[in-house]
Amino acid sequence: DNTKVYCIDNGMEDMRAVYNKDENTLEWTTEHLSTFAALDASQEASWTTANGTSGSGTLQAALEAVDEVGGTIVVNKNATLSNANFTIKKNVTIQGTGVITATVTNEKQHAFTVAPNSTLTLDGITLKIDGNTGYGFDVQYDATLTLNNRAIVDISSSKPEDTTNPGKINVNNSVITANNIRGNFSNGGVWTIGTGSEVTIDTCQSHGFSASAIIVENGATVDIKNVADGKLEIQDGGVVNVTNAGTADSDTYDAVYLHENASNGLIVQEGATLNVTAGKDGNDRIELSTAAASK
What is the rounded CA–CA span in Å between residue 210 and residue 258? Predict the structure, then answer.
């Protein structure tokens, strides 16, 4: 009952194997010749690496197993990562329906860093990043973070000197909730908020949503409120709400501001909505740098 069979030719596909008590065998149906692995599903996680090795154990052990070559991890149950400080150096997928609780204990560390030319995909996972210090994600230039279903708390994007392409964050039919962030919710990156997704940023001591580019697709919503500071493209059907931007003692920061490098300007397509309300000290403005061409 605690064993699952996966096809590991390309990731980990659950074969829905059934245990035959009379024959003492696991049975499943396949339409093609493949490589299969029978793994202990009673453990926190199971994994297969890009080299084809498989195993089961803690989520920590799974992340260490795929560290050098990449691979796929299935989370079998709720898991905890204490003192989280992981660097994704290859292509890694973490899938399942459990809840991962990661704690960051060092103010200079990120729970996950996605290195250049690497991809981290979270599929069906709820990821909660706790702790009063540190950061959630560092999606570096030429790296990609993709979310397929569920949540993260805090993301930042940093730029090594020898790269020019900002990190990519793709949110597909997922939910991101960020509460009580002591700095920026984000600091760079190219964001695509896909159809059916919701991003809620509530209470940041600095910038709410700072990015190289943000695209909000049809049916997606971004709700930003109670932030100190403030290419934004909202496609047909997308909605962005900005409420309570700025601070009571300063009108320096605008609810929506485009940097001089935002050459594509502010794009709100027909059928899309951008709401800016209740700015602190009258701070409900939209400001474009003189170098940012308004579309």
Answer: 10
Q: Are 142 and 117 in contact (CB under 8 A)?
A: yes
Sign of the CA dihedral with 28 first, then 32, 36, and 40 last: negative
What confidence category does residue 93 fall into, taking pLDDT thresholds of 50, 70 and 90? very high
Indicate the length of the chain as a whole number.
295
Question: Considering only CA atoms, which of 178, 36, 153, 142 is closest in space to residue 99?
Answer: 153
Q: Give which of 237, 233, 285, 283 is closest to 263, Cα–Cα.
A: 233
Amino acid identity of 200?
A: T
Chain centroid, CA 67 distance in Å: 19
- Which of 1, 144, 129 minimizes the C-alpha distance to 76? 1
Query: Which residues, other chains included, contact 36 with Cβ-Cβ below 8 Å and sequence gap of 6+?
Result: 5, 6, 7, 8, 15, 30
Q: Give residue-wise pLDDT tens across range 233-243.
A: 555 565 566 66
Q: Which residues contact 31 (CB under 8 A, 6 or more apart)?
A: none
The amino acid sitting at 291 is A
